Amino acid sequence: MFAQQIIWFPSQASTTASRVDLLLYMLTTICGAVGLSVAVTLIYFAVRYRRRSNTPTPAEMRGNRPLELFWTITPMFIFIGFFVAGAIVYFDAYRAPDDATVVYVVGKQWMWKFQHPEGQREINELHVPVGQPFKLMLTSEDVIHSFFVPAFRVHMDVLPGRYSSVWFQPIRPGHYHLFCSQYCGTNHAGMVGTVHVMEPAEYERWLHLNAEGSMALEGRKVFLKYRCISCHSADENARAPVLEDLYLRPVHLRDGSTVIADDDYIRESVYDPGKKIVLGWDNLMPTYKGQVSPEEINQLIAYLKSLHRGETPNRVEEFAPPAATPPINSK
Predict the structure, then answer these.
(1) Percent of the chain residues past pLDDT 90, beyond the cut
(2) Across-strand partners of 192?
(3) How many Å apart are CA 191 and CA 124, to the nearest integer?
(4) What does the pLDDT average to over 8-34?
(5) Residue among 300, 105, 127 at smallest CA distance from 222
(6) In terms of C-beta density within 10 A (0-12 exposed, 13-18 middle, 19 or more buried), how is residue 23 classed?
(7) Is CATH 1.10.30.50 the right assignment for the domain spanning 101-209?
(8) How high is the pLDDT of residue 130?
C-alpha cells in the first residue's frame, strides 16, 4: 500500500485503515490540485493582464454563463463524490459485523481495562487474533477519555455514564500503540497501552493460559451477590420484571414510551432505576450508583445476554429486597 511507503504514516493493520487512507489521499489530492490550479491561474492572470501605461482600459465584461455554470456545477459534483465516499467509509466503520467478538473496555484515570467474553482481563494490553472482527464496548469510570489506535485508524470518545462502541478487524500480526487522545488529567500522557495481534493458534494458547470464569458466569455471581434474585425471581412472587430473554427486546414503560433493552438501558436501570419504570411494576429498586463497579455492570450485561427462559436462579430466601446497597467489593 502507498501509505506504508510514507514513513510518517502508521502501518495499515486493519481492514478499515486502507479505506480511511484512500479517502484521505483522494481529498488531499483533489483539493490540493484545485488549490494549486487556482493559485497558478491567479498568478498568471495577474501578470498577463496587469495594468500598463500604454494599454487602454479594457471593455467591461458582462459575464460568461457557460463558464459560470461550469465552475459552479463541477465543484458541486466533486463534493457530492467526497460525501458519498466519506459516507461509505463512515457506515462501514460504524456498524460491526454480526459475528464480531464483543470486548468490554473501561477507561479510568489513567489506564485501560479490558474484559474478554471468555473472562480474561487485561490492563493496558489487548490480545486479539488476526483476521477476526472485534467490537469494543467502551465506557468511562471517571472523566471523558478517547480510545485511539493509529494503526487501525479507529478513534472513539469514551464517556462516563454511557456506552460507545468501535470495531476493527486486524489483518497483520504485531504490536500496536494504544493512546488516550482526550486530555484527562495530570497523567494523561501515561494513559497508553498495546494491542497485540496474534496468529489464531497463538491466541488460542493465550486464551487457555489465561482462562478465568466467563463474563456471563461472573455476571451471574454479581446477580446473586447484590440479591437481584430477591425481586427479579421470574416466578409468582416476583416483585420486579422478568429478565429472561430481555436483551435487545422492546420494553414498555409506565409513561407510555418504549425503549430497547440494550447495554445503556441496563446500565441506567442499575444506576438510576426510577428514571424508566416498566409498565405494570412499582419501583422498589434502590440505586446502585457508586456501589456496583463498571466491571460488574459489564459482567451483569453479559449474564443478561445469556439468560433465557427458565434459567433464572431459584430464590433461596424470603427476605424483603434490600433498601440500600453494600459498598463496592464488600465481602
Answers:
(1) 48
(2) 179
(3) 8
(4) 89
(5) 300
(6) middle
(7) no
(8) 95
